[in-house]
Amino acid sequence: MSVLQSWPVQREFDPKNMPFRRLGGSGLRVPLFSLGGWLTLGGTVVGDPVKEIIKTAFENGINMFDTAEAYAAGKSEEEMGRVIQELGLRRTDLVITTKLFWGLRKGPNDGGLSRKHIVEGTQESLARLGLTYVDVIFAHRHDHNVPVEEIVRAFNYVIEKGWALYWGTSEWSAREIEEAHHVANKLNLIAPIAEQCKHNMFDRERPEKEYHGLYKKYGLGTTTFSSLASGLLTGKYNDGIPEDSRFSNHSEFFKDTIEGLKSPAGQEKIRKVKELTTLAEQELQTTISALALAWVAKNPNTSTVILGASRPEQIVENLKALEVLPKLTPEIMEKIEKILGSAPEALPSYGRPMLDRFGRI
Ligand SMILES: NC(=O)c1ccc[n+]([C@@H]2O[C@H](COP(=O)([O-])OP(=O)(O)OC[C@H]3O[C@@H](n4cnc5c(N)ncnc54)[C@H](OP(=O)(O)O)[C@@H]3O)[C@@H](O)[C@H]2O)c1
């Protein structure tokens, strides 16, 4: 079989009005909004509904799909691969990303970032996806029990084998990302091109402060996740936990988050969600969901915002963020900042000219 895997193409990709950005300093172009499968695809959503969700995304300009070996214990990769094949999507039209770390079994070498798991885990992911390569493979977490040189060399091996075209990190600290770059630089190897990080109106520290110096220096791209804070920024949790929502379907996993919503800090978040809803509806004629997603996409260091959806309608609603983007004027951004009051404190400049929080002079 050709490396590009030719199954009959039934659907041509039409990017519609989707903007594309480079993934960091790489030449890979990614849609401003992509789609991921955590908890949903292969988890709470299986069978034909997965096809409906991916089809709706693809028909609305989303050609990038993110998964991980651990999502639904491998089922997410299986379902995504099955649907891509059944829909007859052209492999070259797609950007497929997966992640390794958590593993599927409990053996001492079944997870983490040893060369053994990176090589074996990649092969197992590809088998589940039914693909010969993924576009980007991410280290789902850092592994402090493996020398960084081993990690960098193993991802380079995976790339040389043609099993992945690029590699990236997820939830690594700035120091860990820098170390990977230094090792790659010293050994003349390929460095990670992007960090998959949490970024939403309530979680800002890493992408807006900690990584601040990395964007320009290393051409770091970001694929942001949980940009709706798992649904909190849709307003659906303002008055409790609705049935058939993420927090009710995964109440054990989100136990602390659910409890936290009752605390003064949690109530304060809900108050802000309500204020942002008013701003979205009255000043931008949109929903808070679209506003919250556009706000992350507005950040010039965001390469792609990975959406999560349990039903196709959520994708259509969330892509209204594209219409909101041009409405995010400096005045509106200031009003949002006033409501949030959560901008990370800038690094001290001691009177010297400072880069802004996007790493620009
Ligand atoms: N690297 C990592 O460690 C990591 C971690 C987390 C996620 N990710 C990736 O990022 C992707 C997105 O993250 P996420 O799923 O946490 O994103 P999110 O946008 O914060 O949450 C998505 C969930 O919110 C609800 N939702 C979405 N749109 C809605 C709308 N318009 N109205 C009402 N509810 C809505 C849906 O859940 P319900 O309908 O079930 O309530 C949906 O599954 C994941 O799929 C995964 O690929 C990566």
From TrEMBL:
<dbReference type="GO" id="GO:0016491">
    <property type="term" value="F:oxidoreductase activity"/>
</dbReference>
<dbReference type="InterPro" id="IPR036812">
    <property type="entry name" value="NAD(P)_OxRdtase_dom_sf"/>
</dbReference>
<dbReference type="InterPro" id="IPR023210">
    <property type="entry name" value="NADP_OxRdtase_dom"/>
</dbReference>
<dbReference type="InterPro" id="IPR005399">
    <property type="entry name" value="K_chnl_volt-dep_bsu_KCNAB-rel"/>
</dbReference>
<comment type="similarity">
    <text>Belongs to the shaker potassium channel beta subunit family.</text>
</comment>
<feature type="domain" description="NADP-dependent oxidoreductase">
    <location>
        <begin position="35"/>
        <end position="339"/>
    </location>
</feature>
<keyword id="KW-0560">Oxidoreductase</keyword>
<dbReference type="Pfam" id="PF00248">
    <property type="entry name" value="Aldo_ket_red"/>
</dbReference>
<protein>
    <recommendedName>
        <fullName>NADP-dependent oxidoreductase domain-containing protein</fullName>
    </recommendedName>
</protein>
<keyword id="KW-0521">NADP</keyword>
